[in-house]
Amino acid sequence: MQTLKGTIIYGDEFEPIDGYITIDDGIIKKIEESTVATDVIIAPCFVNAHTHIGDSVIKDPPFLPLPELVQPPDGLKHRILRETSYSDLVSSMKASIEDMIQTGTCAFCDFREGGYAGVQALHDAIGNDPRIKTLIFGRPDDEGMNYLDSCDGTGLSSTNDLEPGYIQDILKQTREKKKKFALHAGERDQTDILSALELGPDFLIHLTTAGEKNIKDIADANIPVVVCPRSNYITRSGIPPIAKMLDAGILVAVGTDNVMLNSVNMFSEMEFLVKTNLYDDRQVFKLCTLNGAKILGMDKESGSIKIGKKARLMILTKKSYNMQGIQNPLSGLVRRARPDDIIRII
Ligand SMILES: [Zn+2]
């Protein structure tokens, strides 16, 4: 049993309250308000809802157009991954996982290339680390779909990259195994949005180019969306219409996407998102925590600070050179906090 004192970013609406949190056996047992002033912020850890940590072997690619960078089978990342040894692949992914943990992320969902072997490499990188929860979405390779039994689902690139009949077969086999199915859509243009939607995925990635009609269709179909704002900027894909998606009632979460393009640091994603796109501290924090947990089916245990949830917490100082003087702990956390303001991760 341990009790923490601080400004708690409390509940599903992330209301800052001063008080105490009591944790027993890793579970939040009690939350008490108090007027005692504190020097720390206690916040829920991040859920990074979309990554490709397999390309952690490439950290500084040239500024190429999106297809030349990531499109299978011959985009730069796929060429480099083919030439990368198994041990280099695993050790580079291990580094990205450790970076996620140390920058306050408690769960992530990775789209893993390379079929069964690719999924196994990620399992090898994660090991049995209790500090982070991982959802792995594999994709078929020459050996077919034998990856499915050892991961959580299938995560495809765009419907434009594969034959429609083949996609239907992948979907059917994924559903027969009662696994999740998700894919990228609307990253470069709108041509793959409708076909992606028609597959009835568990969620879609990007929707950078989604128009009013696309947003209405996605909302009507009740399909969640994971956006990757920094990734869209560096690939010059545009600005995802996140406020419009939220207004339409779509459940939206955030991912840092390819490690090749971005660090896995969710503080960077929050600051970028709030200053270039959403201008709403509370929504941005929700997209980076609770909404990701909801999309990944782990909101009963993670994503916010409530009694009964797991204590997946980060404790940040209010007194660093960066943080001293903040008036609103939530705004300070979203707009300017950095990993070096973290005192402790629980
Ligand atoms: Zn992606």
Summarize the structure in words.
The protein has 346 residues and is α/β, with parallel strands linked by helices. The chain folds into 2 domains: 2-45 and 303-345, Urease, subunit C, domain 1 (Roll), CATH 2.30.40; 46-295, Metal-dependent hydrolases (TIM Barrel). The chain has helices spanning 66-70, 76-83, 86-102, 115-126, 164-176, 193-197, 212-220, 229-234, 242-247, 266-278, 281-288, 290-295, 329-335, and strands at residues 2-10, 15-24, 27-33, 40-44, 46-52, 105-111, 133-138, 153-156, 180-185, 203-206, 225-227, 252-254, 257-258, 313-317, 342-345. Strands 12-11-10-9-8-7-6-5-13 form a 9-stranded parallel beta sheet. The longest helix has 17 residues, at 86-102. The protein is globular, with a radius of gyration of 20 Å. Bound molecules: zinc ion.
- N to C succession of SSEs: EEEEEHHHEHEEHEHEHEHHEEHHHEHE
Bound molecules: zinc ion
How many structurally independent domains? 2
Under the CATH scheme, which architecture of the largest domain would be assigned? Alpha-Beta Barrel
Structural class: alpha/beta
Fourth-level CATH superfamily of the largest domain: Metal-dependent hydrolases
Q: What is the averaged pLDDT score?
A: 95
What percent of residues are in strands?
Answer: 15-25%
Outline type:
globular
Q: Span from first to last CA?
A: 13 Å
pLDDT < 50 stretches: none
CATH topology title of the largest domain:
TIM Barrel
Please state the CA-atom Rg, rounded to the nearest Å. 20 Å
Helix content, binned percent: 25-40%
Largest sheet: 9 strands, parallel
Query: What is the number of helices?
Result: 13
Count of distinct strands: 15
Strand order of the largest sheet: 12-11-10-9-8-7-6-5-13
Highest-level CATH class of the largest domain: Alpha Beta
